[in-house]
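FAQ

Q: What does a record look like?
A: Structure on top, sequence underneath. For example:
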């Protein structure tokens, strides 16, 4: 029994399950916009299953693909696969299990969700290879999370609304921006081994300016989203809070001081996602009173 608990804990650590908070609130926001309020509990439940299983499969796949790369990086060599805490065979089995659960959840939503499920899987899995040939892999990671609100809309409506491209674009740039910052930790290592990234290509200072630009455009897109869906002052206050939190996130770190990068990357981004969801949800629900 003790060994099983240890394996479970190691697996959850490998996939960083707690970081599901990054994309899940944006997916729920997309679902609420589609329903103009609360979707059914059945829809919400299957959307959550889709989000968790797709992300878990993607994280495990990324760790599997990066095993050899992680083994030579001082920051990542203690991860479960390079450290031998989990086997590649187990990880492959875990990935297949998550994919099957994802497809089942998609099938329980509607036909279009199921038809598009393989495309969604391709997007979230292909990211693991992009750093081998492009410095803009951060945008691919952003796309992997950015499709969440659009996918949630489809899950609720069984059709698509092009206005959701604005929200997906905002999430894409939000994720890409903080991934650019996070990858600054590996600037020296990436240059040494020839891995592609924005910091590797433009330097740490240049990467910070690119991340700031991405987040400014993200905020503009969120304002546009509020206008497109006719949301009110409450949603706009949510955008203002997101802007304040992003500013604080950028003030926590600098090109010369990355010590608080984990706090900026993990804690603040989780708060940002939740804040935006809460304020948009409140705006939608209060309009119905």
């Amino acid at each position: 029994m003790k060994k099983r608990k240890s394996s479970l804990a190691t697996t959850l650590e490998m996939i960083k399950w707690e970081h599901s908070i990054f994309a899940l609130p944006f997916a729920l926001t997309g679902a609420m916009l589609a329903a103009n309020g609360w979707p059914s509990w059945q829809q919400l439940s299957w959307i959550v299953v889709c989000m968790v299983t797709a992300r878990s499969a993607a994280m495990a796949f990324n760790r599997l693909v990066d095993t050899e790369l992680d083994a030579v990086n001082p920051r990542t060599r203690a991860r479960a696969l390079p450290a031998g805490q989990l086997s590649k065979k187990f990880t492959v089995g875990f990935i297949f299990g998550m994919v099957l659960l994802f497809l089942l959840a998609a099938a329980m939503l509607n036909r279009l969700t199921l038809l598009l499920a393989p495309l969604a899987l391709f997007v979230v899995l292909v990211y693991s290879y992009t750093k081998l040939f492009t410095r803009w892999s951060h945008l691919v990671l952003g796309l992997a999370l950015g499709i969440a609100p659009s996918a949630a809309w489809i899950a609720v409506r069984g059709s698509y609304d092009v206005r959701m491209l604005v929200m997906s674009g905002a999430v894409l740039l939000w994720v890409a921006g903080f991934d650019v910052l996070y990858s600054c930790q590996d600037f020296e290592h990436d240059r040494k081994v020839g891995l592609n990234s924005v910091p590797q290509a433009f330097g740490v200072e240049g990467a910070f300016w690119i991340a700031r630009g991405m987040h400014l455009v993200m905020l503009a897109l969120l304002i546009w989203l509020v206008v497109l869906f006719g949301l009110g002052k409450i949603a706009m206050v949510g955008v203002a809070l997101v802007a304040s939190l992003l500013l604080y996130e950028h003030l926590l770190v600098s090109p010369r001081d990355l010590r608080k990068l984990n706090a900026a990357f993990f804690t603040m981004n989780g708060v940002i996602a939740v804040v935006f969801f809460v304020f948009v949800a409140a705006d939608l629900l209060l309009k119905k009173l």
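Q: Is there anything notable about this one?
A: Confidence is low (pLDDT under 50) at residues 1-5.
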